[in-house]
Fold:
Amino acid sequence: MELNKKITPFQFFTLLFLSRVFAMVTYIAGINKELSTTDEIIASVFTGLFLAVSAIPVVLFLKKDNESGIIKRASCLSESFSKVLCIFYLIEALYFGTITAVRFGIFTGSVMFPDTNMGFFIFIMLAASSYIALKGIESAGRSSVIILIPVLFALIFVFTTQSDDFDLLNFTHPFTDKLTDIISSGFYSASRTGELAFIILLTPYVKKLRGRHIYLWVIAVTVLILITEIILAGVLGRFGGTQLFSMYSLSVLAESGFIERLDAIITCIWLLCAALKIAVIIFVSEMLFSSLFKKRRRLLFIAISCAVIFIGSIPLINNISGFISLIRSPVHPILFITGICIMPSVTLFFEKIKRRKKE
Structure:
């Protein structure tokens, strides 16, 4: 397998899109401050705005060089600076990997196989994702395009079969909640979008990456979130806030003529998204380990990444309240702002100083 073979921007952003699909369908009620149904939709608009603004440093970073990732560019400035970035992004990747694994464990343990050992499902998922990561980013990219078709079908099916249950009375007056609470909810939702950091890390693996590709992805994610929030509000109303996984509750209600109770099949499609998301995280972690230690021992670094994610997820899968407290903590915003805004900006600043010295 040619590990450095590049994938197309479409394949790359399909991977990132499926990653957000999994995060959306496994959203746990109670993570954000509870808002009225209409204000949830307004908060989604702010999420899109925050994503668009936070993507600016990433776009500027790619504009200077869309062939080299942030680690390589940092190493051209200083080996010490490069190692600091490696450690930071490694912590971020393993943290998001742990959060994703816990989401997966709680989802499967609560929805598919209640009263079973959720750690076992996480172990199986990590094994499957490790295999994909071992095959390389090209394998994940090709798989994402194939999986995109059933994912879009599942989403369209779930959304379009709810028309009879859609009730405008479920919508509340706009700005029933405080504007600060709405903006805060939108920001915290945006801060859980770790995929933007993958862009500057995986740049060397993507052909002709451009800023417009990033904003097309941001628009696609924002539209998906908006449609989902509108359907959830119109069909479930405030009842959706009482469900652990409101998107799954919506898929259970989906039926069309002779096609009924496709929630099991749809759930399997969501799990494919989880496998790809974790595979990308493991691939990024292995890449960062290799850069940090200047050695490419893929099996060892993939095994270490999986072990860290697995060990980190065990205390949280049986403690949903603790998991929600972690998600609500400042950890996500700190990682988000530092990894997507500060680090690329600092790198660009040092590169500018270096160019001036040469002149």
